[in-house]
Amino acid sequence: MFTTTPQNLAFIQRDPLRLKYATARFFWESHRFDGYIDSLISSLQLPVELFLAGRDTLIDNEGVRSVLERGGQDKLEIVTYEDQTHSIQLDAAERMVRDMVKWLGRYQ
Predict the structure, then answer these.
(1) What count of other Cβ atoms lies within 10 Å of the Cβ of residue 8?
(2) Is the pTM of this model over 0.85?
């Protein structure tokens, strides 16, 4: 439900498979995944393009940024969509695809 687009909100509200709650197991596995990332981030060698939503209330943008900055990759590009909330892929899909295509074009 982390979108501001009425059409997307309506779609999610009608979706019988949408998540309505998170289990303790979900949070436990998320915590484990954080540790896994922390243990391996320095070995990251691939270029990374990170998309952040400037008005995101779920993601710690600065925390994500600082984790990726500890990576071993030589190319890290961070694109912040200042006007977006959490669901960039829903609310700014065309813009995001254009940015991805442009970024991928640099590595052909």
Answers:
(1) 16
(2) no
